[in-house]
Structure formats: structure tokens, C-alpha cells
Design a protein that fits this description.
heterodimer, A: 114 residues, mainly beta, OB fold (Dihydrolipoamide Acetyltransferase, E2P), 5-stranded antiparallel β-sheet, 3-stranded antiparallel β-sheet, 0% helix, B: 387 residues, alpha/beta, Peroxisomal Thiolase, Chain A, domain 1, 9-stranded mixed β-sheet, 13 helices, 31% helix
């Protein structure tokens, strides 16, 4: 379920995040939304040992991934132990979605399969 | 700015430091301001420019009874006060005002009259970072460091060493919150906050404030204190979201601000006798040493481990570049926006009155960060009228 979408400039081809109505590289207003591959690598992270109330009680990762298309985004890495051993920088990860409400699904990332 | 055209003629911190449960935020601003005005031999009616962050310059001016012709409310986080110095220098040189008061006060620990920490849900950080469980700086400022560590072979021991050396400086400062010596093992065994960051790699949370008074260099000689001249200044900003930093191993805002300040001052790194780098967390002095150009990328960890930034200790002379000689945000104090305290220590060193005085120091650099690598400000001070 779900699809990760990014924006890119139809003039200069630059893909970017977070979204805006123009290209942050060349200022063109001719931009489009497209479906990203959902593939990424783990760029950096911390393991928060003092989780926010709405994040449960166990230590969890707060990560930044580098998408195959170029932009980076903050996320959580799920589907693996929340340990330095399981969370290796540059490991391949893929998007998965967590439904928060009828309107909002959060893009999270899990270790790439296969 | 024009080199040596502006001087600090008043500088003071709050009367108390650390836990001050009986003074509100605005009260801390006022206490620091009154101390700085006493230091400079001035009354509120002598001040015609105000600058502050955390509260509005309107609140500050009204509270102290000042009618300014110049007001600066630049608020880009903890380095805002470095930017205030820079803007005040330009304003005085342009004739907008003659005497500028810059204040900071924060009830970081006691939270008396404090506003909350948080971001609007509609902000970029609110939309694209907050959903993932970030809380406060320990879960945001820290995110780039694993990439930095992997890129340059930096270890947890290297991060711990930053805190250990700064504690050595703090031991010499009677006003430091923490003075007892610590070891690398002590740091690595302190409670885990957000791996790889342990408690002793994170700054204090305390109450306090500080104020500076600036005027033109030609007027500065008529004041009671020895003038501390401003050689150069820099500032820059990068991104409100730490996840969107261009490169996690270096701060663009640091590099731009630092280079601008050094270019304005016309000095080389070897000319610098004393350095303050805003240390909200143990990795910041590493980034700062490299991004200011004192070390090549990846070499700051060795520079600190080899005691180049350390005080004299039994059997060894002090390092060639004394760093964070007040004990820093890690051991001296950190109210939330620490930049003012870095500059206060630079001014004390240039006046020759610091608790851990660097003998013969003539040039001091104070380098600040705002937000989570969001902004930066750099001020280069000297006690020499001409360089």
C-alpha cells in the first residue's frame, strides 16, 4: 500500500524534498510530482533511548535516508532490531507505510528484501 | 565590517548562574543588562540601541526604560547574539545609533517565565521531522554524527575526550556547574540519551544570562574598562531541518560564517590565541575546528586527543589553542542559547580577567551555532587597538 512521491523540475531535472511549488535549484515553476522508487540507503541516525510519549517505551531509531533519486528525508527504520549492529550506515532500505489516520500515512523504511 | 572600528565597553553575566529559581526570563535579561551597564559606567538613558533574542527587543527596551533609535530582534537560535554584535557594529558605523546593549537571559532549568520548546505542526520541521519522534536537541542535533564518524573513523572515545578536556577547563572556573574531573570511561558509562550520545556528551540545562555593550572604537577609550575591539564578524544560515543539511560531515553555515569573519579580520589561524566554539554537544567542537579551518576534515579528533586545546596539567604545558576555557556548554553552563556565554569568555580573556586566563592572549574567536546546524555567527575579538 502507498506510494512515495517526489517532485522534480521539468526544466533542469532536479529532484527535491521537502515539496514546494518551484525548483529550489533553478527557481523554475515548471515542476512535476512523480512516483519515486522507494529505494534508499541509510545515511545517518540516532537511537533515541528517551522516546516521546506517543512513540512507545522502547528505544527507537530516528534516521535520515538517502533516496535513490537523490533527496534525503527523515524517517524511522523499522522491521529490524533497533541496535547499532542491525542498523549499519549505507545499508539498503525500502519504503513502507504506517497508517496514522484516514488522511495521513507516514513513509517509514525497512531493510531491503532480496 | 571595518576592522577595529567597534569595541566592547561593557560585559557581564547574571549575578548568579546555574539554578536561579527566583528570577524570570526578563529578570535575567535585566540583571545581566544592569551588570553590564555598571561595568561600562552607563545608565539606560545612555543606551540608544538594543538587541536581543528569546524575548522581543520591544520588551527589553520597555523593561529597562530605554528609548532606542536601533532595535534588532534577530532570532536564529543560540548564535543570535553573535549576529547582534555584527549588526550592531554595522549600525554604529552607519550612524544609526551610538551605544548598543545586547542581552540574553534564559530560565532553561527553572522555567520561570519561559515559553515552551516546540515547532508549529505546519512548519517544515513540524511536517517532515516531528512525526518521527524527535523531541528536543538531543534527538536532532545529534543525527549527523554517525555519518561524520564513519567518514573519518571518529570513535565514541573521541567524542568522550571532548567532554573530558573541557571538564579540565571547567575545574579552573569557580562558576562552573560541573568541576569534578571525569575520564573517558565516566563519559562512556553515563546514561544513554540517543546513541551514540551519552549524558556527559550533552550540554547542561541551567539558568543565567549575559549582556554586552558596544560603541565606536574612538569613544571606547573614555570608558572605565579596557576596550575589547572587534576585528571581524561573520554570519550565515543553512536549513531549518537538520535532515536537509547539504553534508552531514560539515556545516555550510559554519564554513561561510567563519571565512567571512577571518577575511574581515585579516588574520591567519596561527594568529588566534584563544577559541570558543559553541558546544551544545560533544561533536560541535570537532565540526567547528574543521569548518573554521583550524584542522583538516577528520583531524579535529586527533587535535583534541593530542591536547592542543587543553589546559596545562601536571607535567605538560597547555595546548597551543586553548578552547572553551570557561568549561563550555558541557560543563560551565547552558541555558538554551549559549552564544552569549562564549562571547563573555572571549571578552574576559581579552581583558585578562578570565578564571583560566591564557597569558598574553591578543586575539580570541567566538563561534556560535543556532538551531540544529541551522545558523552560525562568528566574532573575532582583540585587546589590541591595531593589528
Amino acid at each position: 500500500m502507498g506510494e512515495l512521491r517526489l517532485q522534480r523540475c521539468t526544466d533542469c531535472g532536479h529532484s527535491y524534498f521537502p515539496p514546494r511549488a518551484f525548483c529550489p535549484k533553478c527557481a523554475s515553476r515548471d515542476v512535476e510530482v512523480y512516483a519515486a522508487s522507494g529505494k534508499a540507503t541509510l545515511y545517518s541516525y540516532v537511537i533515541n533511548h528517551r522516546p516521546r510519549k506517543d512513540m512507545g517505551t522502547e528505544p527507537h531509531s530516528i534516521a535520515v535516508v538517502e533516496l535513490a533519486e537523490g533527496p534525503r528525508m527523515m524517517t524511522n527504520i523499522v522491521g529490524c532490531p533497533q541496535t547499532p549492529e542491525a542498523l549499519q550506515l549505507d545499508m539498503p532500505v525500502q519504503v513502507t507505510f504506517q497508517k496514522e489516520s484516514d488522511d495521513i500515512s507516514l513513509p517509514l523504511f525497512e531493510p531491503a528484501k532480496g | 565590517m571595518k576592522r577595529n572600528s567597534i569595541a566592547v565597553v561593557g560585559a557581564a553575566e547574571t549575578t548568579k548562574m546555574g539554578k536561579i529559581p527566583d528570577v524570570s526570563v526578563i529578570g535575567l535579561h535585566a540583571d545581566a543588562a544592569l551588570n553590564a551597564m555598571k561595568d561600562a559606567g552607563l545608565k539606560p538613558s545612555d543606551i540608544d540601541g538594543v538587541a536581543t533574542a528569546g524575548i522581543s527587543p520591544v520588551e527589553l527596551a520597555h523593561y529597562l526604560g530605554i528609548t532606542p533609535t536601533y532595535a534588532d530582534g534577530t532570532a536564529v537560535g543560540g548564535c543570535s547574539f553573535m549576529l547582534h554584535v555584527r549588526h550592531a557594529a554595522a549600525a554604529i558605523n552607519e550612524g544609526l545609533c551610538k551605544t548598543v546593549l545586547i542581552t540574553h537571559g534564559e530560565s532553561g532549568r527553572s522555567r520561570v517565565g519561559s515559553s515552551g520548546f516546540g515547532r508549529a505542526p505546519s512548519s517544515l520541521m513540524g511536517q517532515f521531522e516531528m512525526p518521527y519522534g524527535v523531541t528536543s536537541p538531543p534527538t536532532m542535533f545529534t543525527i549527523p554524527v554517525l555519518r561524520y564518524m564513519k567518514s573519518y573513523g571518529v570513535t565514541e572515545e573521541d567524542l568522550a575526550t571532548v567532554a573530558v578536556v573541557q571538564r579540565e577547563w571547567a575545574a579552573k572556573n569557580p562558576r562552573s556547574s560541573f568541576k569534578d574531573p571525569i575520564t573517558v570511561d565516566d563519559v562512556l558509562n553515563s546514561p544513554m540519551i540517543a546513541w551514540p550520545f551519552r549524558m556527559l556528551m550533552c550540554c547542561l540545562v541551567t539558568d543565567g544570562g549575559g549582556a554586552l555593550i558596544l560603541t565606536s572604537a574612538d569613544r571606547a577609550k573614555d570608558f572605565p574598562q579596557k576596550p575589547v575591539y572587534i576585528l571581524g564578524t561573520g554570519e550565515s544560515v543553512e536549513t531549518p531541518m537538520v535532515s536537509q543539511m547539504e553534508d552531514f560531515t560539515t556545516s555550510k553555515a559554519f564554513r561561510v560564517s567563519g571565512k567571512k569573519a577571518f577575511d574581515e579580520a585579516g588574520i591567519k589561524h596561527a594568529d588566534v590565541d584563544h577559541l570558543m566554539i559553541y558546544d551544545a554537544f560533544a561533536h560541535l567542537p570537532l565540526y567547528g575546528l574543521e569548518d573554521l579551518g583550524f584542522c583538516k576534515p577528520g583531524e579535529a579528533k586527533d587535535f583534541i586527543r593530542e591536547r592542543n586545546t587543553a589546559p596545562p596539567s601536571a607535567g605538560s604545558a597547555g595546548g597551543k589553542l586553548p578552547l572553551n576555557t570557561n568549561g563550555g556548554g558541557l560543563s560551565y553552563m547552558h541555558s538554551g542559547m549559549y552564544g552569549m556565554y562564549a562571547m563573555q569568555e572571549s571578552v574576559r580573556q581579552m581583558r585578562g580577567i578570565a578564571p583560566a586566563q591564557v597569558e598574553g592572549a591578543k586575539i580570541s574567536v567566538a563561534h556560535g551555532v543556532g538551531g540544529m546546524f541551522a545558523a552560525s555567527g562568528t566574532v573575532i575579538f582583540s585587546n589590541q587597538e591595531k593589528i
